[in-house]
Known about the structure:
Layout: H1 3-14, E1 20-21, E2 28-34, E3 44-50, E4 64-66, E5 78-80, E6 89-91, H2 105-118
Antiparallel strand pairs: 1-2, 2-3, 3-4, 4-6, 5-6
Amino acid sequence: MSQGRQFFAEQLHELGFEPELVEGSETLISFDYVIPNGPRCGEHVRLGLEVPPNFPVEPPHGPHYRPTILRGRNIPGVHENMAFGPGWDHWSRPHPRWNLTDRSVKAYMRHLRSLNEELPGELAHAA
C-alpha cells in the first residue's frame, strides 16, 4: 500500500471524511463530499483523488467528480479520466503553490474550496 495514500486517508478521516481506498490501486482514494461553497454549494458528489506515493511532497493532481458535473461546459482542464472508470470528471487543476503550504490534507482541501469558487455561476445546480 502506498504510504502517501494511507497518510492522506488518515488526515481525511481526522477532518471527518470517510475515505475509501480504491481496490486494485496504490494511489486512488474516494469519499463522499458535500460541496461547501461556490455555485454548486450543497451538492453531494463522490470525490476521487489520485494521491502520489510521495505525498505530502507532491499533492494530488486534481479532483475527480462523480457524477459528471463539469464536463461539456467549456471549463479549461475538465475531461473524462478513466482512472476511476466511466462516469467521472477530472479537473486537471493541481495546487498552484503547494510548496508554500504546510503540505497537509487540510491545505489541499482549501485548494478544492478555491476551485469551487472558480466555477462559473451559470453552473449553479445544473447537473
